[in-house]
Specification:
This protein has helices at residues 2-8, 16-31, 81-101, 108-124, 128-153, 165-181, 185-188, 195-200, 202-215, 217-230, 235-238, 240-246, 257-267, 269-273, 275-303, 308-316, 321-334, 352-369, 385-391, 395-411, 414-438, 446-457, 462-474, 480-484, 497-502, 504-521, 526-533, 545-558; strands at residues 41-47, 53-58, 336-338, 341-343. With 562 residues, the chain is mostly helical. The strands form two sheets. Strands 1-2 form a two-stranded antiparallel sheet.
């Protein structure tokens, strides 16, 4: 490539070393920047926020071409339009939003403002000890803000070498874990039914959701689809919730044909398990109720009859009095109600501030109601490759600790209590169904059912994950179920100790060690057959799990394994 590039510009009369320098500069511009992307060309002719001028994304949506024919580097170019569109959307959408809210995509001015505020405190410090403490806090704040920015842009924890063997093994391992472990996520997601009750209350869930969905299905469908557009609900296409939970959203590198096939299976897994359509419907359903509430309460605020609780809810969604008035005015002008269904027709609104506020509020409320782990709901260590392996499948419990447990304790209203009771009830149903699928005996002890219901509901977040790890490590001698007199939590029953403590990838490695050891020692048992089965993609899909169980039993019978 370097030689061909040199040949193309020979007429510029450069020396060989200069030609190589230009070629290397081009490579560095594409691959060697901190973000691994071409830097943007910014102009200062667009008025921006806080009376300042901000740059605009000048030309990022224009075609780009290299200074030599593509055919010369065809082996290095990506021609998969789906992947190119995915990468472009993943890169451009956050940057457009960042530029709309901050000074530039790097938040240069904002980080400087934070540093200046800390510098004032440092100047006012009276002792060296106090100054060191403040400096440490300053550095942490700047690092945290920059980390969240980079997570949003998809560059935090980006692999230095996407084609390196270690990274490719890590990625393939996480994808394989998703395919072999989360086949039953549809059943595990049943407690999500309780989330609209927790966030919107039982009256609105029935009055603005279930009732019109049955009695006025056509209008409610329109409201659902509009809520999906406003709230950026794309689970049916992008499967974003499943990818976030499984830590498998990856745009770096393509790998071999086997790796591409594995990625293709991962990308369609939500449809195979029916989890993606379920997530899409729940978010649309919740969004329709949330949209009705925001529109109604904005009108009530304008009329001066909004309750304190609903005012607080609007404020939590980023809607102040002025914005509520704008939304109410736009709904009066363009919106409609049909049999208890509120439809904003927001795409026709002529007030961009009201539209942006409505969109932001819907996105936030839907993501909080039907938990989709966000960039700020996971510790930074989970962005490293080792962290992704250890923390795989744990992002949901971490997000639910904030969005369900802590938020619910702060609200302290009847809707939260009703929703929690319903979630525990649905968790009990999940325990029953999972026990039947796995062939485990269902307990007749009510205390076990309550403990399992709480665990499966997700209400306790990572607290019960920690409890389950402790129970696994102590063989049930320490933990919640020891207190209530029951067996260990069933959610971790099929995991080995390594998998429980260090994540599914390390658990799979231990299982492989067990399998190879038994095979070479000719000491094969039923547990070895089961370990092999648990490595197979789709093995725990709810609708085919019974077939895998029969196949496992048949293999053991054929070879006389006990």
């Amino acid at each position: 490539v370097l030689t061909s590039f040199s040949d193309l510009i020979y007429r510029a009369d450069f020396e060989d070393q200069e030609l190589l320098g230009i070629a290397h500069e081009m490579i560095d511009r594409i691959l060697g920047t901190p973000d691994g992307r071409l830097p943007y060309n910014l102009s200062d002719d667009v008025p921006g926020r806080r009376g300042k001028q901000r740059g605009e994304l000048n030309g990022i949506f224009k075609a780009r071409s290299l200074l030599f024919p593509d055919e010369m580097v065809e082996d290095f170019l990506e021609s998969d339009i789906d992947l190119v569109a995915q990468v472009y959307n993943h890169s451009m959408a956050p940057d457009v939003e960042l530029l709309g809210r901050f000074s530039d995509v790097d938040m240069t001015q904002e980080l400087q403002d934070i540093a200046e505020e800390w510098n004032k405190k440092l100047l006012a410090a009276k002792t060296q000890k106090e100054r060191k403490k403040l400096q440490k806090q300053k550095d942490k704040d700047l690092q945290d803000v920059a980390a969240l920015r980079d997570r949003l842009r998809g560059t935090y924890g980006m692999p230095k070498n996407p084609n390196g063997l270690a990274y490719r093994i890590s990625r393939a391992s996480r994808q394989a874990n998703l395919l072999s472990k989360l086949g039953g996520r549809l059943v595990s997601s049943f407690p999500d039914i309780a989330r609209p009750v927790m966030t919107e209350g039982i009256v609105k869930t029935f009055g603005r959701g279930l009732t019109p969905m049955v009695s006025n299905a056509k209008a409610f469908k329109v409201a659902r689809k509009e809520a999906a557009r406003l709230g950026s609900v794309t689970d049916l296409i992008m499967q974003s919730r499943l990818q976030n939970i499984g830590e498998t959203f990856d745009i770096y590198g393509r790998g071999s044909r086997i790796e591409r096939a594995l990625k293709g299976m991962t990308d369609s897994f939500g449809l195979v398990t029916l989890a993606a359509p379920w997530d899409q419907f729940l978010k649309e359903f919740t969004g329709a109720i949330t949209m009705s509430r925001i529109l109604e309460e904005s009108g009530n605020w304008k009329a001066g009859k909004i309750s304190k609780a609903n005012l607080t809810k609007l404020a939590a969604s980023g809607i102040d009095e002025e914005t509520a008035l704008r939304i109410a005015n736009q709904f009066e002008k363009f919106g409609d109600t049909d049999g208890g269904v509120w439809i904003s027709n927001a795409e026709s609104w002529d007030d961009p501030i009201a539209y942006a506020a409505m969109r932001d509020a819907m996105t936030r409320e839907i993501s909080n109601a039907i938990i989709t782990p966000g960039v700020g709901q996971r510790p930074l260590w989970m962005s490293s490759e080792a962290g992704k392996l250890v923390g795989q499948f744990k992002s949901f419990s971490m997000a639910s600790s904030q969005s369900i447990l802590i938020a619910g304790l702060q609200q302290r209203d009847a809707g939260v209590m009703n929703g929690m009771a319903l979630a525990v009830g649905m968790g009990m149903m999940v325990y029953y169904l999972k026990s039947l699928e796995a062939g485990r005996e269902v307990s007749d002890d009510p205390r076990v059912w309550v403990a399992e219901g709480i665990d499966r509901s997700g209400l306790m977040g990572w607290f019960f994950d920690a409890n389950n790890m402790v129970e696994k490590a102590t063989r049930g001698e320490v933990g919640v179920n020891k207190l209530v007199g029951g067996p260990m939590m069933s959610r971790y029953a099929s995991r080995n100790l390594t998998g429980a403590l260090l994540g599914p990838s390390f658990g799979q490695a231990q299982a492989l060690g067990q399998i190879t050891g038994s095979a070479f020692a000719r000491d094969w048992t039923e547990s070895d057959t089961h370990a092999v089965r648990r490595l197979v993609p789709y093995q725990n899909l709810s609708f085919v799990r019974h077939l895998f169980n029969k196949a496992e039993e048949g293999i053991n019978d054929i070879f006389g394994v006990r």
